Structure formats: structure tokens, C-alpha cells
Amino acid sequence: MEKEVIICPNCSKEFEIRACSSINLNEEPFRLKQILNGKINVYKCPKCKTEVKYKSHILVTKIKDEVTEWYWLVSKKHQEPTYKETLLKTILPNVQSTGLIQQHVVFVDFGKPQEGLKFVLGDQKPQSESDWISLGKVLAGEEAIRCFQKALRINSKNLEAKTLLHQELDKLKTYS
Ligand SMILES: [Zn+2]
User: Fold this and answer.
1) CpXC domain spans which residues (predicted)?
2) What is the pTM of this model?
3) Ligand 1 centroid, distance to 9 Cα (angstroms)
4) What is the pLDDT of residue 75?
């Protein structure tokens, strides 16, 4: 973790933070809870107490059964079906030999608890319709659609799943 100075967008106060833009869950398993509780990538301004977001994306690494997985936690303002491609194109030219690394993009609201992330980063599997909905909410495009469809398979009358499914299908049309 390196020290960095950031400027509060609200009151312009400059303050020092211990910046963290990547997390390895194998080295720091305790960070999983922080991530799920929305406690990463936000720093409170010491003057006006505004929560300042540091980066628009954070990299979380997880190695399981010798497979390295990279999870890009991306600010929700970028949540659209083609963003993964855009992100990897911008970042990957600087990263060497990523062929064996599996890459995932999940969309989060930094500073808020992230219900759906436990199915991505934790070992839990979605079971109920609400589990599938919360997972779908952190994904985009086909991946999100699959989750809302699974929720509807459990309960075809679930209005939230129906609405989200239609929104996602519309987005897919707009971005393709
Ligand atoms: Zn401030």
C-alpha cells in the first residue's frame, strides 16, 4: 500500500490516504469481508466527512486450484454490456502474459455493501430468486441476463427479475 494525496471533490481539502488499488485474497483473506461491506476504495475527507472514491476500478486476485482469476471491481457508472472489452483493451496492453488468467468484470457501488459479490468472490452459490437477482445486479449483458432468467425460472412472477431482464435486453440492443 502506498501513500497518496487526494483532493476532496466537495471542500477541496487535500489529504493523505493509504492507497490500495489491488487486493490479493490469497494473501489477505480478511479483505473479502471489507469488499463485501463496501469498505474498500472509499476514504472519508477529514474536513467535511464526504466519502471520496479513489479509483474507478480495483483489481481483486484469487487463486483457486492453481487457476488465477482476476476480478475487476468497476464503478457502477460503467455498467454496460461492452465495458468489459473496453476495460481489458485499455488495461491489458500493459500487463504481460495474461493468457492463463481468467478475467471477470463486476460492477459495484463503492462505499455500499455489495450483496451480489459474495457469489462472485466468496464460496457461496446462489440458491433463491433473490440471490440470482443480486448476482445479476453486479454483472452486465449476457451474464446478467442469465441470472435474471434463473430467478424467473424459480418464480416466473418475480416482478423485479422481469423488469431487470427487460432493462438488460434493451441495453444489449443499444450497445450492440
Ligand atoms: Zn471535504
Assistant:
1) 6-78
2) 0.89
3) 7
4) 94
